[in-house]
Design a protein that fits this description.
By secondary structure, the chain is of the alpha+beta class. It has helices at about 15-20, 80-90, 155-160, 165-175, 180-185, 245-250, 290-295, 300-310, 310-320, 320-330, 340-355, and strands spanning about 1-5, 10, 45-50, 55-60, 65-75, 95, 100-115, 115-125, 130-140, 150-155, 185-195, 205, 215, 225-230, 235-240, 255, 260-265, 270, 285-290.
Length: about 350
């Protein structure tokens, strides 16, 4: 770690860091937590959302654990089944009145497998309140002599919130050879699991000790910028951000309460959907800290670096020795958020999150 003396920076150890921290008094910006009677942010309940385009409709985004987004794959048994799926996709009408759905005509997106051009047929599905899902026919495996597959990308939580969960699945059953075939051949390729609470990112830091990449996006301030832990190319990563601010920016929405989201993305999952409800805890690996408590423990100049860059990024950038970083993390353990207990959250809420997603049937 580096301390500034007379304009010069010198490295300090974790032990010296602890001595500097002892008895220090410093002014810490006061950010009001949205607390319930137990002194923790609401982890049950909901935020009401009103969008500018639909002022008469009020949506409820519930706190707690949910499957926010998923990429599914269906691999046909044969070329004949693949051809039927392809024809079904290309014969879907632009408007499906019985399901209140609209689709964008399939179009081809060119990609290359080596020097061979490959075309991905894509279908976009919309409801009354906007985008719902993307269905892609992926012929690339033909280049390698394998059967193609269909990829489905959507947010079960949002589709359910909009009231379209049954209608979207009805369309998928129709295109992908029926409900039984759909679930029998369905696998999870990528999943985003979210935990929402009624608070603001201004009050917290997220730290993923094993991740090599950490950053804060937005206005380069951990007070309002989204905090990222892990690479977008790795098998898993975390993101923490203000979901209410995203909704305001994207949909000109009005939100009744703060809404902070902790999001775990798992890539290259290769799970059968029947395994989902039995999975062990998948949201471990990150720790959540109370911002004000961290800043009261950590001395300057490190506290300013943490406040500017986020906890993970500041430690990675300014404390090069991994053992020293571990000591500092030990020092700030008392500042960990009491409500963030991944194992308990998972045991209590995951099974219901899978049921609500419709991935095991409606």
């Amino acid at each position: 770690m580096k301390q500034v003396n007379n304009g010069k920076a010198e490295c300090i150890s974790a032990s010296k860091f602890l001595k500097l921290s002892t008895g220090m008094k410093k002014k810490v910006p006061a950010y009001a937590h949205v607390e319930n009677d137990f002194g923790v942010p609401p982890t049950s309940g909901y935020t009401e959302i009103t969008m500018k385009k639909h002022p008469d409709k009020v949506f409820r985004m519930y706190y707690g654990l949910k499957i926010d987004r998923v990429k599914l794959g269906i691999t046909p048994n044969s070329d004949m089944e693949a051809e039927v799926m392809y024809n079904n996709l290309n014969n879907i009408p632009e408007v499906i009145p019985e399901l209140d759905l609209e689709v964008r005509e399939p179009y081809n997106t060119k990609r290359f497998e080596g020097e061979v051009p490959v075309y991905i047929d894509t279908l976009m599905v919309y409801g009354d309140y906007g985008y719902l899902a993307t269905i892609r026919y992926m012929p690339m495996p033909y280049v390698m002599g394998k059967v193609p597959f269909v990829q489905i990308d959507f947010s079960p939580a949002n589709v359910r919130m909009y009231g379209y969960i049954e209608k979207l699945y009805a369309l998928l059953y129709d295109v992908l050879l029926g409900e039984g075939y759909f679930y029998e051949h369905l696998s999870v390729k990528q999943i985003e699991i979210s935990y929402d609470v009624g608070d603001s990112i201004a009050n917290y830091y997220i730290d993923m000790p094993r991740a090599r990449k950490h950053k804060v996006c937005g206005d380069n301030s951990s007070e309002t910028g989204s905090q990222y832990c892990g690479s977008g190319y790795s098998t898993s990563s975390f993101k923490m951000y203000n979901k209410d601010e995203q909704l305001i920016a994207k949909h000109s929405a009005e939100c009744s309460n703060h809404l902070m989201r902790i999001e775990k993305t798992i890539r290259r999952a290769k799970w059968d959907v029947s395994e989902l409800s039995c999975l062990p805890c998948q949201i471990e690996g990150a720790k959540i800290y109370d911002r004000q408590q961290v800043l009261e423990i950590v001395p300057e100049p490190m506290s300013s670096k943490i406040d500017e860059n986020g906890l993970s990024a500041a430690l990675r950038k300014n404390v090069k020795n991994s053992k020293e970083r571990a000591k500092i993390r030990k020092m700030i353990e008392p500042a960990m958020a009491s409500w963030w207990n991944p194992e308990k959250i998972w045991a209590k809420e995951w099974e219901q999150a899978v049921i609500d997603s419709g991935l095991l049937g409606l």
